[in-house]
Specification:
It is built from twelve helices and 14 strands. The protein is an alpha/beta fold.
């Protein structure tokens, strides 16, 4: 049976990984500066993570949410302590799309309204309401398009005000650092005014931290750079270091009711063991401090390369923008230099989302390789002209 062909694939077959490196079936070592879309937070095959997951799967990998699961409580308590999000409640699911789907559903339950405001170049997932709130018509089927969603320009505070004052908006959903869209950020004034408008208009303020959360921005959550208190915070990618897990943090102004949300696999024993191991590693290894130190070092080196026209993002959620489309550059990095990087809807942007354990030697290696590739491409362009 053939696979449904929806992914353009690089001709690389990883078979193992350790730390910040991935190894293919020919034994070639690759520097992983993409982490599988920012999923690998504490490094591949982290020994304490492997031990925790291996132990749990040998004991009890799964049972439904109809029984007591102390691992969920442990995960919630550690998440509260490390994130600083006091008094929020946790609902666990399986992915970022599912987290945002539940966030939007909960906002609609709470307000009794049905329309959503989202922003241009945002990405919130591929399920029903989440994909409708995503600014990419190529992935929105007619079924999804039935959702009531208004897409505005980032920083368009007058547009937000006008839409919220119509009285039918249940939620504003925002990435504080856009991921797939290309690392754009709103201003502090914009985010804080949107939050105030939500409060004034009985609208839930949803922080999509699926990619920017778990320390990647330099704080545990990217919204913590600003004076806002989200009603709902969605989380996933780096939460399980590769094991599927997601969730939403829910402000106590939203009351839980039996049957309101539900999931079969969400919050299972194995997922919780993975999630707890990630939080323990972030805390015990001071990974958020490392994020800030390595981000500063990365940006310092990036500024020395004249071909880089703009440096976007925060922490270890970074983008290098050029004055040309980077598809060929990414291919040369992976096939010739053996370095994984990411792309974005901005075709001139190289996305950098490494494990939070990255060190200066890894960054030096990347920039040495990048300089070599850029020089080679310029020489080829000169010969061709």
């Amino acid at each position: 049976m053939p696979l449904f062909d929806v992914y353009p694939l690089y001709d690389v077959t990883p078979v193992s990984a350790k730390g910040i490196y991935v190894y293919d079936d020919a034994g070639t070592e690759y520097l992983d500066l993409y982490g599988g879309h920012a999923v690998i937070s504490i490094g591949h095959a982290h020994p304490k993570y492997v031990k925790a997951v291996s132990y749990q799967v040998a004991q009890l990998g799964f049972y439904s949410n109809a029984i007591q699961n102390p691992l969920q409580v442990e995960l919630a308590n550690k998440l509260e302590a490390l994130s600083g999000c006091k008094d929020y409640e946790l609902f666990l699911c399986n992915s970022g799309a599912e987290a945002n789907e539940n966030a939007l559903k909960l906002a609609s339950f709470k307000t009794g309204k049905s329309r959503v405001v989202a922003f241009k170049n945002g990405f919130h997932g591929r399920t029903s309401a989440a994909v409708a709130a995503t600014d990419n018509p190529n992935i929105i089927a007619p079924l999804n398009a039935q959702q009531k969603v208004t897409i505005l320009e980032l920083n368009d505070i007058l547009g937000v005000k006008a839409e919220l004052e119509k009285g039918d908006v249940c939620a504003v959903i925002v990435e504080f650092i856009q991921g797939v869209g290309g690392l754009d950020q709103g201003t502090a004034d914009f985010f804080e005014q949107v939050y105030a408008l939500c409060k004034a208009n009985d609208t839930m303020f949803i922080a999509d931290e699926v990619q920017s959360g778990y320390g990647r921005s330099g704080k545990f959550f990217a919204f913590q750079q600003y004076n806002v208190t989200p009603d709902i915070i969605s989380i996933a990618k780096g939460m399980g270091n590769g094991f599927p897990i997601g969730g939403i943090l829910i402000h106590p102004n939203i009351e839980a009711k039996y049957g309101m949300l539900g999931t079969t696999f969400g919050g299972n024993h194995l997922a919780c063991a993975a999630g707890i191991a990630v939080l323990d590693a972030i805390k015990n290894e001071n990974l958020m401090d490392n994020v800030n130190a390595m981000s500063e070092y990365f940006i310092k080196l990036a500024k020395t390369i004249p071909q880089i026209k703009n440096i976007k993002g925060r922490g270890l959620m970074l983008g290098l923008e050029f004055d040309f489309e980077v598809g060929a550059l990414r291919k040369k990095l992976i096939y010739e230099q053996h370095i994984f990087t990411g792309g974005a809807s901005n075709k001139k942007l190289l996305r950098i989302l490494p494990p939070l354990t990255i060190k200066k030697d890894h960054i030096n290696h990347f920039f040495e390789a990048l300089i070599d590739v850029l020089e080679e491409m310029e020489k080829t362009a000169e010969v061709a002209s």
